[in-house]
Every structure is written in C-alpha cells, then in structure tokens.
C-alpha cells in the first residue's frame, strides 16, 4: 500500500498498467546489463548501486501494485525510484515518437490512465509534442507523490544539525527521509527480485 494525497491505496486499472509497463521496461535494462549506466537524471536513484536500485524498485513495485503489502515508509530513495520509473516512461514515449514501428503503445497507455483520472485537455495518442507528454506524465506522478522532496536533500542536509532539524520539522519531513538507504542486494538476490517483479508486472499487464 502507498500513502498518497488521495489516501492510502494501490494503483489499479490503466494507472497500474502504465506503471507496470514502465517498471517492466526498467527491468529490461537490468536484464540487458545497462541499468548500472542508465542515467535517469534522478540523483537519489542514479547514485545507487545495481543491488540498491533493484531493491528500491522492488519496494515500490510491491508497495504500489499489491494490496497485501504493508504501508511503505516514504523516503527519498523510494520516492526517487518512483520518479525514475516515470522518467523511463518519458524516454520510452520519445522513442515511440521517433520510431513509428515501436511495438509498445506508450502514449495510448498514458492517455488511458489520464482519462481514468477524468483529466482535461488530454492529447491524442498520435500527438508528437514531447513537452505535452512530459506534462501528462508529471500529472500521473502527482497522483502518487505528494511533492518532489526527494530532489531537495541539499536544502535540508547542507546545514548544521540544528538547522537541518528545524527545516525538516517546518516541512514535516521525517527524520530518516534523506538518510534511509536501500538494501544493497547481491547479484543472486537481485536476479531473484527481478524475476518476482517481472511476474508481478505481468500479472497486472496480461489480463488487459
């Protein structure tokens, strides 16, 4: 389960599908051996080891897609991992626009998720304006993340402890939000997690 602005919930319907597809795409990078060098522009995710990246993806995948998982504690690492999944989605949309033969209809999935949210001014799946798609994906992120605190560690951590604590208290940021770390899985543990995550994503995607 996940704590969002609209309450404690998991992703369902089209929202779950587009997230599961994007997460599965990141797992493809892991299997192909390119995840280590895949720069997503999300510093708190990019700085992780391979094992930590898989651990963080497992945390968010299970937390957002399974009802039987306890409420996940919100930290910069897990929220950054969510942002990383959606950044991968943005890259995939650019690829789809540039390569008309792309087999995965990313824009169609985003449109379905936005329609499910009863959003206004949704572009057609044939739209080739990448800035428009960035906007649409950001709105999907807003339905999960309260804010973008995972980007702001320098604001809170580059001060003496007393000021850091005061700033975090003012912003209602948990003490361990920036200091919590993901487990650094061994290669064997990471491969097992990837297998389980693929199975989870497939269970969301295949019925549709």
Notes on the structure:
The structure is a single chain. With 208 residues, the protein is an all-alpha fold. It has one domain. 59% of the residues lie in helices and 3% in strands. The chain has helices at residues 13-32, 43-46, 50-65, 76-98, 106-116, 130-142, 153-157, 161-171, 187-205, and strands spanning 2-4, 7-9. The protein has a two-stranded antiparallel sheet with strand order 1-2. It starts with a strand and ends with a helix. The mean pLDDT is 89.
First-residue to last-residue Cα separation: 22 Å
Q: Quaternary state, please? A: single chain
Mean pLDDT: 89
How large a portion of the residues is in β-strands, by DSSP E? under 5%
Strand order of the largest sheet: 1-2
List low-confidence stretches: none
The number of distinct β-strands equals: 2
Helix content: 55-70%
Q: What Rg is obtained from the alpha carbons, in whole angstroms? A: 17 Å
How many helices does DSSP assign?
9
Content-based structural category: mainly alpha
Order of helices and strands: EEHHHHHHHHH
- Principal-axes geometry comes out as globular
Tally of structural domains: 1
- Biggest sheet record: 2 strands, antiparallel
Short summary of the structure?
The chain is mostly helical. A two-stranded antiparallel sheet has the order 1-2. The chain is built from 9 helices and 2 strands.
Give me the secondary-structure topology.
Layout: E1 2-4, E2 7-9, H1 13-32, H2 43-46, H3 50-65, H4 76-98, H5 106-116, H6 130-142, H7 153-157, H8 161-171, H9 187-205
Antiparallel strand pairs: 1-2
């Amino acid at each position: 389960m996940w704590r969002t602005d609209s309450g404690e919930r998991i992703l369902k319907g089209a929202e779950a599908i587009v997230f599961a597809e994007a997460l599965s795409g990141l797992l493809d990078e892991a299997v192909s051996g390119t995840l280590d060098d895949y720069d997503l522009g999300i510093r708190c995710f990019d700085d992780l080891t391979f094992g930590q990246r898989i651990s963080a993806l497992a945390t968010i995948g299970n937390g957002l897609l399974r009802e039987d998982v306890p409420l996940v504690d919100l930290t910069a690492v897990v929220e950054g991992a969510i942002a990383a999944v959606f950044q991968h989605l943005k890259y995939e949309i650019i690829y789809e626009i540039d390569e008309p033969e792309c087999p995965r209809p990313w824009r169609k999935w985003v449109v379905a998720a936005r329609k499910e949210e009863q959003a206004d001014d949704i572009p057609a799946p044939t739209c080739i304006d990448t800035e428009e798609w960035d906007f649409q994906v950001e709105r999907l992120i807003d339905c999960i993340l309260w804010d973008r605190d995972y980007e702001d560690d320098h604001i809170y951590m580059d001060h003496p402890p007393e000021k850091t604590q005061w700033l975090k208290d003012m912003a209602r940021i948990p003490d361990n939000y920036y200091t919590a770390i993901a487990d650094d899985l061994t290669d064997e543990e990471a491969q097992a997690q990837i297998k389980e995550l693929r199975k989870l994503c497939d269970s969301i995607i295949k019925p549709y």
